Amino acid sequence: MIRTRLCDLLGIDYPIIQGGMAWVSTAELVAAVSNGGGLGIIGAGHMPTDILRQEIRKTKELTDRPFGVNLMLLTPHIEELIQVSLEEHVPVVTTGAGNPSTFINKFKEIGTKVIPVVPSIALAQRMEKVGADAVIAEGTESGGHIGELTTMVLVPQVVDAVSIPVIAAGGIADGRGLAAALALGAAGVQVGTRFVCATECTVHENYKQKVLGAKDRDTTVTARSTGHPVRVLKNRLTREFEQMEKEGVPVEELESLGVGKLRLAAKEGDVDHGSVMAGQAAGLVKNIMPAAAIIKEMAADAEKTIGKLRDIITAGNPIKV
């Protein structure tokens, strides 16, 4: 079995954590991932505070294993979501779209592990200095809000720059991706798009089928002009958004176009006019499986991949391409 220091840090069996996807990673999926030996993460997004509290408590009812909450720092009522997470003593908190340094100590005081998502070396180093337990180096291949650097380029540079565990994210959906991340020096991986097609994921069936039908070039990045680029699957909404960007429509109008669109796709199943957030790894997702089976398959395939590489070195055989 593959075991890294991330497993010891978080109390999990496999170095695999599930991405905190708003409107997608609810208690059912989160508990299934944690029960399967990984770390499930509730996607708080713009969730009302009472709903987040319900999701945390429901997760606790469904699993006695560690789990986490992802806090998106751009959320208008983020302070309230932070307070709920503190009051509920969430075991792990991951953060995105901002710098969590102002509240890291509050979580550390109650024993919560804090793991920020970082798109650069500079932010990774800053997070280590303020006490982060690990960082998620997320490449531009990821679904949802993204940075500029690719996973292949970002991860090894962050690994070299910090001493805390680095979790690779972006473009990882199978065991080969896990093995590659470990080769780059990561202590584990964050997986989002693959878990959209977990049996326990409560996202609308249309959303899952949209991911299953995706090919290698079916994602696009919208909202670059707003300063908050988002990777999604192409549809009628993305074409409208891209046309408006070309026409130089004001940022406020562009942002208003996106309001409520993720929920429209994830909960109501409108994958034409809704925002279907997914990473470039969507093309690797071919079936719907229980979360525990996804984790075990990834781990087993990673071991096989590492074994093949070991055989190549031992046998002294050239790598055929």
List keywords for this structure.
42% helix; TIM Barrel; alpha/beta; eight-stranded parallel β-sheet; globular
Provide an overview of this structure:
- This protein is α/β, with parallel strands linked by helices and 321 residues long.
- It has one domain: TIM Barrel, CATH 3.20.20.70.
- Helix content is 42%, strand content 14%.
- It has helices at residues 5-10, 27-35, 49-62, 78-87, 104-109, 121-129, 151-161, 175-183, 193-196, 205-212, 236-246, 251-258, 261-266, 291-315, and strands at residues 16-18, 40-43, 67-72, 92-96, 113-118, 135-138, 144-145, 166-169, 188-191, 219-222, 230-233.
- The protein has an 8-stranded parallel sheet with strand order 1-9-8-6-5-4-3-2.
- It comes from Candidatus Aquicultor secundus.
- InterPro entries: Aldolase_TIM (IPR013785), Enoyl_ACP_red-II_put (IPR017569), NMO (IPR004136).
- This is Enoyl-[acyl-carrier-protein] reductase FabK.
